[in-house]
Structures are given as structure tokens and as C-alpha cells.
TrEMBL record:
<dbReference type="GO" id="GO:0070528">
    <property type="term" value="P:protein kinase C signaling"/>
</dbReference>
<dbReference type="InterPro" id="IPR027705">
    <property type="entry name" value="Flotillin_fam"/>
</dbReference>
<dbReference type="GO" id="GO:0002090">
    <property type="term" value="P:regulation of receptor internalization"/>
</dbReference>
<dbReference type="GO" id="GO:2000049">
    <property type="term" value="P:positive regulation of cell-cell adhesion mediated by cadherin"/>
</dbReference>
<dbReference type="GO" id="GO:0005768">
    <property type="term" value="C:endosome"/>
</dbReference>
<dbReference type="GO" id="GO:1901890">
    <property type="term" value="P:positive regulation of cell junction assembly"/>
</dbReference>
<feature type="compositionally biased region" description="Low complexity">
    <location>
        <begin position="1"/>
        <end position="27"/>
    </location>
</feature>
<dbReference type="GO" id="GO:0002020">
    <property type="term" value="F:protease binding"/>
</dbReference>
<dbReference type="GO" id="GO:0016600">
    <property type="term" value="C:flotillin complex"/>
</dbReference>
<protein>
    <recommendedName>
        <fullName>Flotillin</fullName>
    </recommendedName>
</protein>
<comment type="subunit">
    <text>Heterooligomeric complex.</text>
</comment>
<keyword id="KW-0472">Membrane</keyword>
<dbReference type="GO" id="GO:0045807">
    <property type="term" value="P:positive regulation of endocytosis"/>
</dbReference>
<feature type="region of interest" description="Disordered">
    <location>
        <begin position="1"/>
        <end position="38"/>
    </location>
</feature>
<comment type="similarity">
    <text>Belongs to the band 7/mec-2 family. Flotillin subfamily.</text>
</comment>
<dbReference type="GO" id="GO:0072659">
    <property type="term" value="P:protein localization to plasma membrane"/>
</dbReference>
Amino acid sequence: MSPTSPTSPTAPTSPSSPMSPTSPMSPQEARARQEQVSAQLLSETAMAQAQRDFQVQQALCDAAVSARKAQADLAYQLQVARTKQQIEEERAQVLVVERAQQAQLQEHEIGRRERELEATVRKPAEAERYRLERLAEAQRSQMMMQAEAEAEAMKVTGAARAAAVAARARAEAAQTAAKAEAFGQYQEAAVVDMVLQRLPQVAEAVAQPLLGTRRVTLVAGGSGDIGVSRLPGEILDVVTRLPAAVEALTGVSVTQAAQKKSECQA
């Protein structure tokens, strides 16, 4: 509360009218009167000074209040600015966190799509490729085994037919030799002629299994010819064994007899 304003100084009391000449003032009364006037003047001066001091103090108080209010306003504005800055920083941090979360979600989505692609496309494709490779390998193995079996069967069939033809030739030769011995008409050259006449039949019998064959699979098991060029060699190999078989059965060397016959004809 502001101090109570002092009462306004009262106007100095005017001195009493001078005594009439009929009643003159004594010196004591005049001095008392003078002291009364001086005291009144001093009181009025003190009251005026107190009023001035009060006004000065009130002005100082108002200035202090204004200064404090200005400081409070400035502090409030600074606090508001700091709060806004803090809010902006927190908002920026929230944006950073949100973007990081979005990036993480995108990475998870990419990983999920990769796994889905792996499960739906790549693995089935690899499984299909593996299945086709195994199937092709099995087919190759089956074809090779079938080719080997057919080649072996052909070889066995050819050898059996050649053996049958050779046996028949041996039987016919034995029969012819018996006839020659019985009638004395055949010599070694006749036996050779008969064998040579039978050689085309032997070659035809060896090649006969190939006439009804639709497909021939040749398997090369080592060095030498491969493919179709190997087939004539197999047939000739069977045919060239006949002179040795004839010599073993009859004791007649077809090669030597043929050479002698050529020399005689020359």
C-alpha cells in the first residue's frame, strides 16, 4: 500500500489585526506571536518536504515496478521463445524417428518381398531345374544301358548266327569230305572252293539281324572307330574268324589253299 498522503498544509493563519491604539501589544505578546508564526511556517515547510519525499519515493517505486514488469515480460518472452524452440526440436526429432521407422518398415517390406520371391519363384525354378537335370541324367543312363544291351544282344545274336552258319558249314564240309573220301573225287582244292562259296552266305547270315532293325545305337567303349564306321568292322571281325574255324575242324588252311590255287591259276 502506498503511504497515506499527508494532509495538505494549511494556509498560515494571518496575524491578528494590530491592536488598536487603545490596546498596545506588549513585547512578550509580540515575541510569542512571532514564535507562533515561525512554528507554523516550519510545520508547513516540513509537510511540503514530506510531500515531495513521498512523491519521489512513489516515482522510484513505480519505476522499480515498471522495471520488474519489463524484466518479467522479457523473461516470459524468452521462455516462450525457448519453449517454441524446444517444441520445434522435439518435432524435428519426432520426424527423424518417423522417417527412421518408415525406412525400417521399407526394409522389412523389401525383405518380405525377397523372401516371397525366393519362395514362389526361385526355389521352384531351382527345383524344376534340378528335376530336369536328374531326369535328363536318368534318360542318358537309360539310353546308354539300352544301347549297351542292344549292342551286346546284337553281338551275341551275330555270334550265335555265325556259329550256327559255321556249324552248318562244318557239317556240310564234313559231309562233302566224307563223300570225297568215299568217291575219291574231292581234293583239298575242292574243300577250299566249297568254303569260299559258303563265305557270302556266312556274311549274309551275320548281317541278317540288321535288316529288321529300326534303330541302331553304337557305344564306343575305348579307342578305335566310333559311330556307323564301326559296324562293318564288327561284321568283318565275325567273318574273318571262319577260316580259323574251318582249319580247326578240317585241318585245311583256307588261306594257304587259296594262295596255292592262285599260283596254279597264274
